[in-house]
Predict the structure.
Amino acid sequence: MFKKQSRNQLRRYKHQRIRRKVHGTRETPRLCVYKSLNHIYAQIVDDENGVTLAAASTLDKELSDLPSKTNIEAAKAVGKRIAVKAQEKGITKVVFDRSGYKYHGRVAALADAARENGLQF
């Protein structure tokens, strides 16, 4: 009858729905978040040209001293890092793409840290 879908498949369907509305341009690129069991990633993307303008994750050498790479503190550090990299490139305003995740926990912590450090969305 119906095949049971995994949580990740359902998240991907949500992400496709979100991406129909959320589109990054050169003036306001898209801040995309991805989280795995071990790390959290953020990148700023210009969808018109298909270019990643800035990226940060818990895999960066600057964030290697974090005690845990999976908690809210790590997400805050990645949010701060992506905001600093964006400002170095002259980016101040972005649209936020939560990639189908709930705006809660690590995703919200990353977004709040990026806002506190100068990104507007």
Remarks:
- The domain at 7-116 is CATH 3.30.420.100 (Nucleotidyltransferase; domain 5).
- The first helix runs from residue 7 to 21.
